[in-house]
Amino acid sequence: MKMPAVVLIGLAATLFLTAAGSQEKVDPRRAEIDELVQKTTALQGERIATLKDVLDMSVHLAAKGRADVAEVLDARMGLLRAELDAAEKNSDRIAYCKKALESLKEDEQLAKTLLEAARGTGLNVIKVKATRLEIEVLLGQAKIREAKESK
Question: Model confidence over 56-65: pLDDT tens digits?
Answer without folding.
Answer: 999 999 988 8
